[in-house]
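FAQ: What does a multi-protein file look like?

Like this. Sequence, then tokens, then the next protein.
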Amino acid sequence: MSLHVDGLRVYYRSLRGDVKAVDGATFDIADGEIMGLAGESGCGKSTLGKSLIRMDSRMRYVSGSVELDGRELPVWDDARMNEFRFGHVSIIPQYALSALNPTRRIGSIATDLLKARDVPVDRVLPELVRRLELVGLSEDVLHRFPIELSGGMKQRVVMVLSSLLDPSLLVADEVTSALDVSTQRAVAELLVEFRDRGFVKSMIVITHDLSVLYQIADSILVMYAGKLAEKAPADAVVHASRHPYTQLLISSLPDVGVRYEEQRLSGIPGRPPSLLDPPTGCRFRTRCPFAFDKCAEEPPFEAVGPAHAAACWKTAA
């Protein structure tokens, strides 16, 4: 296994108490696997991704373990994680278009990154130029400031820099948001190409856009209110999901070519619970059309089929 996460809990401190953003996540990602991570805004998917590289000082590690290639990641210790960042586990951050220092040229940003990791710049520079050309950018980009690049160009620059040291795991957080449709497709295809070329071994692609994940992901993990709801091969999640939340999430997507007057979109009634004081039992039960008495107890996240796991008492029954 490339990645094994066991019982990970990561909270945020607030004046009103702990926000239980990731509350007991357990899952695996195999070598070469692209796993999509989906769910509503605020479900904890970005927190889960960032916790694997510990890039947010507001996060408070509570419990659990993370192993990458058989080696434990010290995700509870910011200083100790420096040894693993970008070389073992890397991230394309959310709002990547704003991740580049506007006062530094692209080449200087790349040099700073390499020096911070004690990597000889001269040794890596030819590979940096090669990868820029691979994503359709010329060497001239290294002499430009971020403001001189389009949104799609900046996104591709960040992708190259984040994967330049060939990390075992790459977390891509909302990489297609704020991009036009054609650029979204190009960026999504580049992620697959980075995996296929061996620039990264495994990948987590975080997005609320299930249509993107269906095209590029091998598996999809669905989160709801800080908990894992379902994980399965992408085709199974889209066409044979077992968790009611996943089913409603899929059914709320528009069909291509269907007009509003012919078929109105149906959302999921209700709102997710507050993660400051989440309810006991299944966190989806107040919105679930299949909820029954047993749902007052928390369902286990367990296998319901080959390479398919879900947390639902109805599924388990």
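And here is the next protein:
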Amino acid sequence: MLCAWHRLVASGGRVSIGAIVGEVGCSQRHLIAQFREETGLSPKTLARVLRFGRAIRAIKSGGGARLSEIALDCGYYDQAHFSRDFREFAGVTPSELIASQLPDRGGFSADR
């Protein structure tokens, strides 16, 4: 399962669990069980945490990127998934986080 862990981390959570299952040669059920036993997280949850961490770093680095561009670059399928993870992990939406952390929204343009 170490190979699966490294694959998820190296991809920043953007590789599909199905692809990892194919690479490591075990069933999805076995992979999930092993991950939960070793880390307390499912591989999907770890992937979400990794994408969220990458998004936080992108937001904090500035650069004027739109939130939709950050979401896409971090592996989110759409803005709804991006916002859902922010609410779950940070307790706020991406726009609320930017407003609370960066003066003048840090040059970010919120997608409306």
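Q: Is there any per-entry metadata?
A: Some entries carry free-text notes. For the entry above: The helical segments are 2-11, 17-24, 28-39, 43-61, 67-73, 79-90, 94-101.
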